[in-house]
Amino acid sequence: MPTIDPAMLWIVLGLLLAIAEIALPGIFLIWLGFAALLTGLATLVTGMALAAQLGTFAVAALATVQAGRSVIKRHPSQSADPLLNDRLARLVGEQVVVVEAIEDGVGRVRVGDGVWAACGPDTPAGTRMHVIGHDQGRLVVARSG
Predict the structure, then answer these.
(1) Engineering a disulfide at 109: which of 21, 89, 118, 144 sits with its beta carbon 3.0 to 4.6 angstroms away?
(2) Of 84, 102, 81, 85, nearest in space to 139 by CA
(3) pTM of the model
(4) Which distant-in-sequence residues (6+ apart) come within 8 Å of 99 by Cβ?
(5) Distance CA 97, CA 108 (A)
(6) Residue 141's beta-bridge partner residues?
(7) HSE (CB half, 13 Å, CA atoms) of 109?
(8) Rounded to whole angstroms, what are the CA distances from 58 to 5, 18, 53, 91, 143?
(9) In Å, what is the CA distance from 69 to each residue of 13, 27, 59, 63?
(10) Vertex 123, ends 131 and 91: CA angle to 5°?
(11) Contacting residues for 128 by C-beta, under 8 A, at least 6 apart
(12) Can you give the residue ranges of the NfeD-like C-terminal domain (predicted)?
């Protein structure tokens, strides 16, 4: 029965992890793939035992993941739509209609086909306003003018 070179196993594992990163993007598997490749190269050069290989992989994994975190922190990705997951922020600037009078600074406004909690100056129902911000899950509104 043929034996498989441990260095090649590490290199193949590294390549599989890199491919998995492409298929399942998450910016994590690639760093483990680098660690496996480094372990494979070190094993190829030194012929180290399994225990040393596992230790090398563990240290390399910690180092590459930390390096990856550092790179990502220094170079954050820019989104084409930075407010994509911030529904309240996306509503800033929208025109709204008060549907429940704003009394003591709190009321409800209609935005499109939905009704949202709002805070702002006391205003009777039916008044047109616009969203100027958001606070604790409520839209902050001001009189249109």
Answers:
(1) 118
(2) 102
(3) 0.55
(4) 108, 109, 110, 115, 125
(5) 9
(6) 131
(7) 31
(8) 20, 17, 9, 47, 60
(9) 22, 9, 15, 10
(10) 10
(11) 95, 96, 97, 144
(12) 90-142
Q: Which residue has the tokens 């090649």?
A: 8
Q: How is the chain split among helix, strand and coil, in percent rounded to 5?
A: 45, 25, 30
Q: Extract the tokens encoding 86.
A: 């911030």
Buried b (16+ CB within 10 A) or exposed e, 132-144: ebbeeebbbbeee
**How many CB atoms are closer than 10 A to CB 145?**
6
